Amino acid sequence: MDELQLTTALPFVNAAPHLGHALEYVQADVVARHARARGRPVRFLTGTDEHAVKNVQAAARAGVPVAAFVTENAHRFRHLADALEVSYDDFLRTSADARHAPVVAELWRRCFRAGDLYRAEYRASYCAGCEEFRDDPCPEHDRPLELVDEENWFFRLSAYAEQLRTLIASGRLRIEPEARRNEVLGFLDGDVRDVSVSRPRARVGDWGIPVPGDPEQVIYVWFDALASYVSGPGLDGWSNAGERWHVIGKGILRFHAVIWPGLLLAAGLPLPDALLVHDYVTVGGRKIGKSLGNAVDPTALVERYGADAVRWWCACDVARIGETSFSESRLVETVNRDLAHGVGNLVQRVVALGAGRSASAESPGGGSSLAGSCRATIRAVDEAVDHLDLRRACEAIVSLVGETNRYLEQTAPWHRPPEQRGPLLATLLHATSTVIDELRPFVPALATRAAARLHCLQPGPPLVPRLHGAG
To answer: What is the reported pTM?
Structure first.
């Protein structure tokens, strides 16, 4: 199969990571692990976006040099990804990775040669939170806009609006879910303006990649950050990939669905194939944010409940459309219901039933309804993951757990003579193995333990200990 290049967005490092970052790490990792399990080569890139003005401002407030500040916070993000067992192949820091700046400069030069970069004066309101000029209050950040009057370089985005609309409407650039696709198409139906892609060096504290041929300007952080998707694999790696998918949050959709493909068109580089867009996790009905005082430390959650518990909640309980409210009690309830009482109990029962036998002694009953359900579950998981509908994928797996338990009760192998017990056990082993295989991208550590238990058919302690809430 052709290689899939998969990325998360690269988060700003003006503060420690919160649960929303964990959500994106987990979602992207499920997609990567699932593709690998189906035999597809994957190159999975994540990292940190470090040339933002907000990083400079946060470092100043902390009284720390900006380079040291972003390095410390970048380590926190990488530590979170590792704690969550994210199987990334590449972690790119935009201010520190030697691969990055040359590719950013090359992308700039290509856009310039195409005639799509020009310098102009600009006066507009600016959201420092998302590093974006805006005409109206920012829905993402609860703070006043700043009035900025300066001369910048602009990218001729307006020249690509119609082409972008055609690419998205045709599905060549796939955006999931459909509501987000329609949102982008609505934007492209309006007045698409050229966008500022540089900042005066003095305003950003001399922090950023210089504009080629104009050292008094640095390249806008979003031009810089988006280019990381190319600087990671390199120009050849990006161009030669089979497909390119980005997993992103809804708040940065326009950057990825409009500005990024516009830049690539101007530079003569291949477009991404899919944008898989997730919604927000909230606490107390509000978007998570350090400034709001409701940030949830995902690393602490992993330390308290384990990586599989946090991963399962992010995958199975977060809605594809609409915001999802987090609480520790909700996480505990979900994990206990699905993993401890569901998966863990099923594996224990099947192992106890087969104790002392060979796991491969019999062939499963291929014509049974349970065997058909296994095949249907695999298809359902494939389709759901392709659309980043991880809740639906998890529901399909949990449904198979329930059906396997019902089959166990209905057939009651412990009451059957030995010649009937073997085929029934083989069917149960096949279904339970299917559950474990389909779970592996979601909860890899649990799946590994379950597979080992099932292989040796030796009873042991509870596979998934019941969780108890904090305090």
So the answer is: 0.92
User: How far, in Å, CA of 247 to CA of 66, rounded?
Assistant: 28
CA distance 140 to 130: 8
Q: Is 290 a catalytic residue?
A: yes
Please confirm, yes or no, whether 34 is among the known catalytic residues.
Answer: no
Active site (annotated) includes residue 21: yes
Among 75, 76, 56, which residue's Cα sits nearest to residue 66? 56
What one-letter code names the amino acid at 10?
L
In this predicted structure, which of 147-161, 207-221, 442-456 has the lowest mean pLDDT?
Answer: 147-161
The 3-state DSSP class for residue 4 equals strand
The most distant pair of C-alpha atoms in the chain lies apart, rounded to whole Å, by: 87
- The Cα–Cα gap between 177 and 321 comes to 8
Q: For residue 164, is pLDDT > 70?
A: yes
287 is catalytic: yes
Torsion over CA: 321, 175, 159, 166 (sign): negative
Q: Exactly one of 111, 127, 314, 394 is catalytic; which is it? A: 127
- Give the neighbor-by-neighbor strand order of the sheet with 274-278: 90-93, 42-48, 4-8, 243-249, 274-278, 174-176
Burial 416-454 (b: 16+ CB within 10 A, else e): eeeeebbbbbbbbbbbbbbbbbbbbbbbbebbebbbebb
Average pLDDT for residues 331-347, to the nearest whole number? 96
What does the pLDDT look like over 273-305, one tens digit per residue? 999 999 999 987 777 765 556 678 999 999 999
Confirm whether 18 is a catalytic residue: yes
Helix (H) or strand (E) holding 444: helix 444-456
* Residue 144: CB atoms within 10 Å: 11
- 434, containing H or E segment: helix 418-439
> Of these residues, 54, 111, 138, 256, which one is catalytic?
138
- Residue 89 CB coordination number (10 Å): 14
Residue 361, pLDDT score: 46
Q: What angle do CA 359, 378, 82 make, to 5 degrees?
A: 85
CA dihedral (259, 262, 264, 270) in degrees, to 10, reads 110
